[in-house]
């Protein structure tokens, strides 16, 4: 199966997921962000993710105005754009947006539920393994679970963006010393179980160049809905 396979028809795969950050911050996760009718962002210690209601220059300038000089943000878009008014584009990263199409699963948490007391250790693991944007309070966005070995956090996974009907699985990572034992797979399936029990559909984002991870997610039951573009930007100088 090709890693770039895109599902043409998928239940519940609506345009809600075309602008996931905006819809999460406009609805379920509004308390974790700030903004107005044109631009929104997560609080900086929650996540660097931000979004605009549309691709207008007015909306992007409004978002840029919410950031400090040189401050960065991450935007999840459906396509690359040559310019983003108010921003300097630092990097484009193509990502597969994958949505669960598998059966219902029932997998118990193979480790433990992580909380605020684990935040520093979670941040350290994310900084080491780089599964995607992660901040000191990202864990407050949803349920996070982890596996410890000899008292140290060896692997984790959790929930990031949430909106009616959909919950994103994120921060799936394993310490280099503990890879090859299937911990990430166990954690992802436990997260799928939790999300399905809320009657939500799990989805996730994975770098398009990460073919091995995409292949694993496909085997589990995820399918690529569409190719998205993750833009790493910073506020342009005045």
Structure notes:
With 238 residues, the protein is α+β, with helices and mostly antiparallel strands. It has two domains: 15-95 and 229-235, Aminopeptidase; 99-227, Aminopeptidase. It has five helices and eleven strands, in the order αβββαβββαβββαβαβ. Strands 1-2-3-4-11-5-10-9-8-7-6 form an eleven-stranded mixed beta sheet. Strand 7 (144-149) and strand 8 (152-163) form a beta hairpin. The longest helix is centred in the C-terminal third of the chain and has 15 residues, at 183-197.
Mean pLDDT, all residues:
94
Strand content: 25-35%
Q: CATH homologous superfamily of the largest domain, by name?
A: Gcn5-related N-acetyltransferase (GNAT)
CA-CA gap between termini? 48 Å
- CATH domain class of the largest domain: Alpha Beta
What structural class do the secondary elements suggest?
alpha+beta
Number of strands: 11
What overall geometry do the principal axes of the alpha carbons give? globular
Order of strands, main sheet, comes to: 1-2-3-4-11-5-10-9-8-7-6
CATH architectural name of the largest domain: 3-Layer(aba) Sandwich
Largest sheet: 11 strands, mixed
Helical content band? 10-25%
Could you please say which CATH topology of the largest domain applies here?
Answer: Aminopeptidase
Number of helices: 5
Q: What are the low-pLDDT stretches, counting only 5+ consecutive residues below 50?
A: 1-12
């Amino acid at each position: 199966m090709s890693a770039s396979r895109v599902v043409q028809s998928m239940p519940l795969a609506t345009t809600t997921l075309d602008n996931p950050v905006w819809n999460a911050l406009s609805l379920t996760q509004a308390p974790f962000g700030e903004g107005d009718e044109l631009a929104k962002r997560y609080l900086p210690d929650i996540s660097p993710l931000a979004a605009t209601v549309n691709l207008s220059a007015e909306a992007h300038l409004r978002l840029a105005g919410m950031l400090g000089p040189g401050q960065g943000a991450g935007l999840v878009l459906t396509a690359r754009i040559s310019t983003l008014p108010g921003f300097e584009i630092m990097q484009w990263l193509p990502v597969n947006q994958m949505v669960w199409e598998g059966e219902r699963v029932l997998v118990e948490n193979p480790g433990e539920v992580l909380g605020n007391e684990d935040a520093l250790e979670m941040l350290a693991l994310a900084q080491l393994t780089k599964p995607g944007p992660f901040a000191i309070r990202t864990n407050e966005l949803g349920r996070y679970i982890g596996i410890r070995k000899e008292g140290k956090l060896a692997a984790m996974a959790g929930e990031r963006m949430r909106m009616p009907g959909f919950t994103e699985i994120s921060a799936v990572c394993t310490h280099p010393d503990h890879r090859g034992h299937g911990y990430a797979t166990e954690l992802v399936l436990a997260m799928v179980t939790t999300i399905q029990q809320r009657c939500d559909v799990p989805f996730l984002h994975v770098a398009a160049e990460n073919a091995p991870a995409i292949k694993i997610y496909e085997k589990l039951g995820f399918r690529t809905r569409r190719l998205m573009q993750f833009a790493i930007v910073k506020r342009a100088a005045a």
